[in-house]
Amino acid sequence: MPPEFYEGTYDQNLDIFTFGLTLNELFTETQHVFRQRATEKIVFKEESPIFRDLITRCTADDPKHRPTATEIEKTLELYTHGFDMIVLKKQANYVRLSTEQKDQAFIDFYEQFHKSAAEFIRKKFPVEFLQEPKFVAGVKVKRDVENDQQVDCHVQ
Questions:
Q1: What is the count of structural domains for the chain?
Q2: Which of 28, 39, 43, 120 is the most buried (most CB within 10 A)?
Q3: Which are the contacts of 6, defined by CB distance < 8 A and separation ≥ 6?
């Protein structure tokens, strides 16, 4: 649990913390080392290969450094839209792939998409998304002459 739990004063930021723990457990299939005291740090037995930065922010000891639920939602929407544009439109047979092939397709997508998405998120949160809830994360895929993909993230 986060430090504020042991102090007895906590709010919805505790949920963000436990969401980060849950994400890491889902993506690594391992549990973290549970802390016995508020002064101990959470230790992950294994770091997630995806969303590591989001997990790290969610599990920050200082609740002020954790993302809001809106930021998490918009971040996941950005990745969902990117996945739809880059993978699903490119691989019509995606639904017929084995679980292992789908996992690999997502890892490949994540490695391609993450750098530009992370830069976009750093630039846009919290100002645009939190003050203007009508904005929806969007992804524009530009193709060059050699058919290599360049991902350009923007708000649409």
A1: 2
A2: 120
A3: 37, 38
What whole-number distance in Å separates Cα of residue 95 and Cα of residue 93? Answer: 6
Those residues whose C-beta lies under 8 Å from the C-beta of residue 51, and which sit 6 or more positions away, are: 23, 27
- Are 62 and 78 in a shared domain? no
Expressed as residue numbers, the domain containing 4 is: 1-67
C-alpha 151/C-alpha 81 separation (Å) is: 12
Domain stop point among 46, 67, 88:
67
Residue type at 73?
Answer: E
CA distance linking residue 14 with residue 27, whole number of Å: 20
Q: Report the distance separating Cα 26 and Cα 29, nearest Å.
A: 5
DSSP per-residue letters across 63-129:
GGGSPPHHHHHHHHHHHHHHHIIIIITT-TTGGGS-HHHHHHHHHHHHHHHHHHHHHHHHHHTTHHH
Structure tokens of 155?
């708000």
Kindly report the pTM of this predicted structure.
0.73
